[in-house]
Amino acid sequence: MGLVLDKVSRHVGGHAHIENVSLTLERGSLNVLLGPTLSGKTSLMRLMAGLDTPSAGRILVDGVDVTGRHVRERSVAMVYQQFINYPSLSVYENIASPLRVARRPKDEIDRKVREAARLLKLDPYLQRTPQQLSGGQQQRTAIARALVKEAQLVLLDEPLANLDYKLREELREELPKIFAATGAVFVYATTEPAEALLLRGNTATLWEGRLAQFGRTPDVYRRPANLTSARVFSDPPLNTMRVHKRGLQIVLATGEHGPARGVLAELPDDDYTIGFRADHLHLERPHADAVALRGVVAVSEITGSESFVHIDLPRTDGGQFGGGADRWVAVTRGVLEVEPGERIECFIDPRRLFVFGHDGRLAAAPPLVMAA
Amino acid sequence: MLRARIVLTLYILLLMLPIYWLVNMSLKTNTEIVSGLTLWPHNLTFENYRRIFTDPSWYSGYLNSLQYVVLNTVLSIALALPAAYAFSRYRFVGDKHLFFWLLSNRMAPAAVFALPFFNLYSAIGLFDTPLAVALAHCLFNVPLAVWILEGFMSGVPREIDETAYLDGYSFSHFFVKIFTPLVASGIGVTAFFCFMFSWVELLLARTLTSVDAKPIAATMTRTVSASGMDWGLLAAAGVLTILPGALVIWFVRNYIAKGFALGRV
């Protein structure tokens, strides 16, 4: 048992913020809501918390319908992306606040507050007010408050987005451990695919208020159920291209054609969209079966340990591909110096492609052993 | 730098001159005031102040004024707090129009309302009570208070409200314990403006009172006609009328700037 969203929708002024989302989140599980900004992560969390009521559908906690119930009567803790604390209270009182309202005995409050403060390294600051703390300490205060409440549902809405790099890494590792012990349903919203993978657990990919896919995080990553889910769970953006399959021949949008190999070999004749992540676009031929394509460098970004090369691949004019260009991203190790406008050859591995049908659903994928 | 300082000093001297002259006059005898120009009191006297503090017809004017001003300030803030919260947190049909309409009340001249208030309060027995003036001044001060407080409240993130509900606070508990301290400076600024507007308002205060609740401003004007020109006494009364405002401004001086920054004052 746990939290169940049953065909939940929320419409505000004619706009669908959340559209027909069904989800089952188990008690003691860690669930990541992954999606770009405006994909509905926060809207969905507010519905889970009971801060907003759904326009349609039901929300059940342990089998009990709580759809219209006020937040106060639910067992929910939430941490916002902005650092939200009570500015007029000390850090100690901030953390103690949910316990005080629940009228717990004084010594229990003191014990729990100190325990949470120790866990989140806030002990030296208990007598300060939130304004006297750094951003990271303020957010840790908010997290400590969510922790002492021992709620059945813990919602973290991009809690680390406004923190500096080092602190993020530290907290990202600690947070799941801290909350796992409480046996709560743990929901974590993020815009970053890498964060979802690091947190493991389950991932729900969201796009424009709809649920694209929900499952174990590695499964969602390696077996995106549809093109939307693959796009959401990809950073840099997913490389895609429309292709035709005609018998044993495959025609790419660039006009190139060749024998249908790899994952494409077994598919019936049709139009498809191929998709793959930046690490599977190679700038050097990986093996003899790789397909070579010619493009033009659009942008090149060098981070030091990695280089990202954005390549435009012009589509053939006329026919069904209709001109224009596909923008792909390749990631290579080390520093690779290329100039925008430079012609470049890139390679795709036909065995490591996701293939999506007309309706966007996954039609073929590389075998799991390979698609690491 | 030096020139700027000189210009500023001259400007402040110019501003302070009438106030200095008032204080100067209040410490002179009438003979000295009318006999010619003296830059400071040659025969220093506190007789004018002594008379105000001992004569009930004088000091009761201050007490009456203070009564309705404090009453009005408390009423205005008590009414405006929930109203401002509603305007800052909820969207409802016509909220913006209602908000503007409230503000437009301030634009109506007091003279328009003097007659209906006089008639109404006479009919229900409120005439010549501090409550009558306090209620009449609410007409101007409640919209002002809502306007100022709404600015301060909108500066408090809505997420704080939600966090409090998530923590289990009831609305009233949250409002008193968490929210009010966050807008305390706003309440201070609002109280100051309500106090000042009510304190200096003359027309309604004089129309709605006769003997028992006569405000100090009315006492001053009536004394002029009754006993000729008692310059020194009037000057002393004037100084004592300025004092409460100066005191209040001293207490809220740090918050006023914040009010200006919010564009609400």
From TrEMBL, chain A:
Keyword flag Ribonucleoprotein: no
InterPro entries referenced in this protein's UniProt entry, alphabetically: AAA+_ATPase, ABC_transporter-like_ATP-bd, ABC_transpr_FbpC, ABC_transpr_MalK/UgpC-like, Mo/tungstate-bd_C_term_dom, NA-bd_OB-fold, P-loop_NTPase
Keywords: ATP-binding, Cell membrane, Membrane, Nucleotide-binding, Translocase, Transport
Domain of life, per lineage: Bacteria
GO molecular-function term, one example from the UniProt record: ATP binding
Keyword field contains Cell membrane: yes
Domain (ABC transporter) ranges: 3-233
Pfam families: ABC_tran
Family: Belongs to the ABC transporter superfamily.
Protein name in UniProt: ABC transporter ATP-binding protein
Native species: Azospirillum isscasi
Automatic annotation (TrEMBL), chain B:
Predominant cellular place of this UniProt entry's protein: membrane
CDD domains: TM_PBP2 (cd06261)
Pfam (any one): BPD_transp_1
Origin superkingdom: Bacteria
Membrane topology: Multi-pass membrane protein
The UniProt record lists the keyword Coiled coil: no
Residue spans crossing the bilayer: 7-23, 66-87, 99-119, 131-153, 174-200, 231-252
Family annotation (Gene3D superfamilies): MetI-like
Span of domain ABC transmembrane type-1: 62-252
Compartment(s) where it occurs, according to its Swiss-Prot or TrEMBL record: Cell membrane
Keyword RNA-binding: no
UniProt keyword annotations, A-Z: Cell membrane, Membrane, Transmembrane, Transmembrane helix, Transport
InterPro entries: BP-dep_ABC_trans_perm, MetI-like, MetI-like_sf
Family: Belongs to the binding-protein-dependent transport system permease family.
UniProt-recorded name of the protein: Carbohydrate ABC transporter permease
Organism: Azospirillum isscasi
